[in-house]
Amino acid sequence: MPDTFSVKFWGSRGSMSSSSNAHKKYGGNTACIEMRCGDNILIFDAGSGLRLLGNQLMKEDAKRMHLFFTHCHYDHISGMPFFSPFFYPKAKIDIWSGHLQGKNKTQRMIADYMRPPYFPVGPEVFSAKIKYHDFEPEDRLKPVRGVTVDTLALNHHDGCVGYKVKFQGRTACLISDVCHIAGVVDQTIVDFVRDADLMIYDATYTDAEFPKFANFGHSTWQHGIRICKEAGVKRYVPFHHRPSRTDKALDKIAEQAKRKFKRTKMAREGLVIRL
Ligand SMILES: [Zn+2]
Ligand SMILES: [Zn+2]
């Protein structure tokens, strides 16, 4: 098996999908990230970007994959019913979540989302072999040999889980969605992401916008940099862009962010990072 570790963005938008001529560069699909650890396929969140990833996986005839949920707000689950591998009888898919406490929560989360009158059919229409897993934040998951996935509870309405994926000595962290307290760098997050090769972070707002949205459950691109600096994170990807944020506005943030933290790359659809 190859020892390559790559991270690809299929949806980098937060809150809701958005499409216009001013959203072409960064894309309008919501949260979906693919990590490839060797031949292993790990997917984080099922926002609208999941549909496109599904098409790619069908082209590759991929049969084995793991889908992890940070939480199930609509921007992180709306792609679920449109993921082609769910309708491929040869596929075996493990679905994981830990933001809801209790037994069978992952299975129930999917069934609750896909049901009339909100959606015409339920997950019983899937023909892939699906295994549901429930975990508790702070559990260490071992979905496949050689890959460890650490988890952390994040401060977000209705709960959310941060992930740290380790493969062949390299580490990628996903910290979204999360709300910070102005002026405070959360030491639990700093400890969790310490020395990571990559941190993907909830950069919904700017520091200037934050006071207006301080209890909306999100953070700022500047706050992500504070965490990176304190934790010795090597590369930073601001993620979960506001629907209203245009390409031009995101380009400007990218420029400002790079001045404060050189190894910054804004999340955009199609971006691949090799660790
Ligand atoms: Zn979100
Ligand atoms: Zn959310």
TrEMBL record:
Coiled coil: none annotated. InterPro entries: Metallo-B-lactamas, RibonucZ/Hydroxyglut_hydro. It comes from the Bacteria. Residues 43-241 form the Metallo-beta-lactamase domain. SUPFAM superfamilies: Metallo-hydrolase/oxidoreductase. Transmembrane segments: none annotated. PANTHER family: HYDROLASE C777.06C-RELATED-RELATED, SLL1036 PROTEIN. This is MBL fold metallo-hydrolase. The lineage of its organism: Bacteria, Pseudomonadati, Pseudomonadota, Alphaproteobacteria, Hyphomicrobiales.
